[in-house]
Amino acid sequence: MTAPSDDAAWPASDAPEDLPALIHGPSADDDKGPPAADAPVGGAPVAVKNWFDILAAAAKPQNDGSLAAAHESARAYRSRAKADNTRAAYRSAVRAWCAWCDHHGVPALPASPRDIAAFLAAGRDRGQAGNTLKLRAAAIRFLHRAAGLPSPTDTAEVSETMAGIRRDAPNPQKKRAATLAVLRELVAPIPDDVRGLRDRALLLVGFAGALRRSELAAILLADLERTDQGFQLTLKRSKGSQTEAVLVPLPYGRTELCPVRALARWLDAAAITEGPVFRRIWLPPQAAPDAPPAGQPVPALPAIGTEPLTPRSVARIVQARAAAAGFSAREFGGHSLKRGALSTGMQAGAHAAQLRRLGRHKSFDVLGEYLEFGNLFEGHPLSGVL
Hints:
hpI Integrase, Chain A, DNA polymerase, domain 1, three-stranded antiparallel β-sheet, globular, 2 domains, mainly alpha
């Protein structure tokens, strides 16, 4: 079996997998607070891009006691109210918007509804997904609110254009749920080498905790507490709770799918005593033939890095292990583990409130998007009644 590469190319169409909540647009809180004093209203698109890059970075300045420094600190804190993924997604969208404005010679800030509608329509004509374009519209709205300007996206011209795009664009295909049966097949062919130990632990922890790929990538050893019943994982941030930590239980299992034992084996093999839990692994360059004794080359051993995997790397690992198990890699992604855990719990008869708690969802509507239904007739509420 070919070992998955942590650095494999990632198709751009799959990039927004962690961003479903962003496409609904900024919240009402985005309208609060004074505008940034240096917003380049009426400036060149490149100036708008550079200003927003700094804003999205949310770097907190040294507060020298002046009013200007206090305003800058407040702006940084407001920016940090957004999750890292949100800021990165808005930053990328605003860059695309500014590049389009520069190419066509139209202002980026303030923007006209007519130009925004044309930008979105041009994106759809190039085959961009409806969710991608909805996210870009949300980013343009946030750009204007951050500059203290009314949003030009709150117009019939833009909203009707987006409505037409939604009708034209096919619904995005959800990633397949890695249910218990699928998970068992994913894990079975994984060898006991160092990369295999990491990937097995990643799959089983992601499933047991119903974790998103970004949450898996962010786990630190300090976030794990060993108990008699398993590991207790502290998520400092999650999509359902941006400001309060969440405790996630990872219980002992009775089969080869036990997440606690798999995680312990990986931590021991990698000699991890602090820092990120799931790390990049790579093969160093092969030693020169004349370097080892007797002129025999020594095979390079995998090197374990100190930096965490990226969320995209987590998704690539899931896809690679799916392909190695005989599945189509394109069916799977970073959300497959979370969908699989919740769907398995549903099939086992867990109450919806328990599933919502496991998935850390704010509403039952969002929970429903993660459930994969098999036979629609099985378990029908009116079965045996009619």
